[in-house]
Amino acid sequence: MKRVFLIVLDSFGVGEMPDANDFGDKGANTLRSCFNTGILNVPNMQKLGLFNIDGVELGEKTPAPAGAFMRISERSKGKDTTTGHWEIAGCVSEKAFPTFPDGFPPEIIEKFEKATGRKVLCNKPYSGTKVIADYGEEHIKTGALIVYTSADSVFQIAAHESVVPVEELYEYCRMAREILTGDYAVGRVIARPFEGEYPFARTSRRHDFSLTPPKDTALDVLSRNGKDVIGIGKIYDIFAGKGITQCDRKIGNGEDMKITSDYQNRDFSGLCFTNLVDFDMQYGHRRDPNGYANALNEFDKWLGDFIVKMHSDDVLIITADHGCDPTHSGTDHTREYIPVLVFGEKIKPADLGTRNCFGDIGASILGFFNIDEKIDGTSFSDEIIIGE
Fold it and tell me: In degrees rounded to 5, what are phi and psi of residue 8?
């Protein structure tokens, strides 16, 4: 193979994992919630085998799927973006990142206030849109930074762009990243700029400052073997740039699908790794099943055109990093299986059932390039490459 396009539909889970109750996610099923809206229309993913996946007992199964399909459970101890993507790339997180359901301890906030010269507002778990509605005006009056978290391992800093310029906000995030070490080493520090007047609106200039993966992933292996590793959307931030040779960090489904199409028209050899964040950020966390279903419909329309333009030595992998059931209680991610759809001229259709490590995806990508290096995960490439 010459090119692999790996597209993560951020949070598109396909049903609760066996340990979902341990995470408060019993009964979660992102796909089912979208299907139950009655407006889901994804014929291209359906042809690839979406409704034929183990445990997906809805929709119309395809008699002869065009690709290989499966679901995979997560080995890492979490249900967040960082652990999900790291595991996809072959780095299982045996220990969960720390979370702060009561907010960050005084010693962390004091260090942060001293470093930035600004006071802190909120410091508790909060919805990203509600926190700026509730604290935005006080922030504008005082210049204090809105710091909040969630059920995920995140330290989020919100600031109005007229009060704190974006580059200054990014610098505050770098300061927080240096402070948050050891037992306080959250997976991500996130800049959350917003603008306008009450109730305010978040801007597209979000930026994630992640921990660096503790060991090499498939991205490092590919780049070390002379392959291109292109990160689109949040990918560069999630891996702190480790193993990535090119990137485009624009955020948003529409723009990132367009950028992925642009790379399809370019000559490269390696991996194009795309994250489509709006499923999670705009619809999953906001518990908007209709919005989520419509976003899936839009992706599926784009997918039809993308498939037609694939080269004979291309492979397309569509997957997710966790769930975020838009009808589940609360506003957080949900512990779910992820779907995997694999398509290409040299890929034979196959039902690969249920697998037990997201890293099987990264290991298989190495297999597609005939690179024999070990990462967390077991390759399924030899099961689906025509001629193997």
Answer: -100, 115
